[in-house]
Hints:
alpha/beta; TIM Barrel; 56% helix; globular; disordered N terminus; binds flavin-adenine dinucleotide
Amino acid sequence: MPDTANEKTLNSLSLSVDQTLVERPSISFDNLENTFGSRSLAEIRRAYLLFKTLGNPLVVKLGSTLAGFALNSGLPIKGLIRKTIFSQFCGGEDIADCNQTVSRLAQSGIGSILDYSVEGKGSEAEFEASCREIIATVQRAAGDSHIPFSVFKVTGLARFELLEKLSDGEALSADEDREFHRIRERVNRICEAAFKARVRIFIDAEESWIQPAIDSLATEMMEQYNRTDFVVYNTIQLYRHDRLTYFKDSANEAAQKGYLLGVKLVRGAYMEKERSRAEKQDKPSPIQPDKSASDRDYNQALRFALDHIDRIAICAGTHNEHSSLLLADLMTERGIDPGDKRIYFSQLLGMSDHISFNLAKAGYNVAKYVPYGPVEAVLPYLIRRAQENTSIAGQTGRELSLLTAEMKRRNRL
Ligand SMILES: Cc1cc2nc3c(=O)[nH]c(=O)nc-3n(C[C@H](O)[C@H](O)[C@H](O)COP(=O)(O)OP(=O)(O)OC[C@H]3O[C@@H](n4cnc5c(N)ncnc54)[C@H](O)[C@@H]3O)c2cc1C
């Protein structure tokens, strides 16, 4: 019922979309030349060794525990981390350090999204420093077409417990109220800087129990800065069973209030944590019952966005080949040019280059997250990447088979 109401309001506001069927540019995710052309043989071998190591869950488990301990105890392993996992998944230790990665990706028509990946900070001074750093990424992106977006996490600017309290709708003390105003002011400072610099900015999605506070800040910012152009993008996690409806409701609200909706569509990164918390609290899990339900809603979200593309801009943040091809097909069906700036594809640095490089080659807009920060500080991010890549059956298997094929191809050359 609410869906039908949404469709009506949006359809009455949407302009008609050209339905001419043109042929989709040819895309082959198996094209090794495009995928690895910009990499040296040494880099390919290093990536192969790294993914092979990550494919061993025991090594990852031990490594994750020991790395933090060794760094904290001053053992000299920083160099080793920097040369291996850090150089695969991060652009550098600061913004200037990332220039090389930005240029390398730009040569293949791929944009960079500088992602200050320092986590677990908790003091007001640290939140202020993060805010200034994120504004610096916006300023670095200003006027540089190779850096089409900036990004931030609200937990980099705010105390987790306060976001949780806000999300629960609990009353705040006078001190907490002042704290919340400072958070809002930081988020506003970043979004205002993005608006002035004409840089689009993503607000990442996080755990479901703090997401209402994040959604509310993101909505407020979109209402303020997305009046004539897409500046602020919220993130929708389709591994949650309530989020397709939330996406449609957000689109309806934006249409009614006269602002444009920017969304990054992802499946979601906190599945295990979400499920175990729900189980511990004896509450229903917010996560879909199975992977195919997440896939179904993700693909539905792509369709819904393209049906309302006059008022919605999207970034498909995914390593899923099927969803990426589906989006390209939907664009063709609707006569939308591959270079249309309302539609972006995005992957993380060091992962799924076969998707990024082949889509870019075919003329689609692609940008990769380029995480950066001091080695010690980005360790939690690196550990997540390592843990996510332990399954040979999934992502790692695909990376390894492509890297193996590329090494064989080079031997034949
Ligand atoms: C550019 C970019 C930005 C991102 N930003 C965010 C962000 O802001 N917030 C965030 O949370 N994540 C973010 N992610 C991570 C993302 O949510 C996914 O964890 C990751 O991309 C894997 O999903 P996939 O679509 O790439 O591919 P796939 O490999 O097809 O899907 C894996 C995903 O499917 C879902 N899934 C797996 N098994 C099940 C199951 N049994 N039941 C239900 N669902 C299941 C999970 O979400 C899992 O991560 C981002 C990813 C990218 C590439």
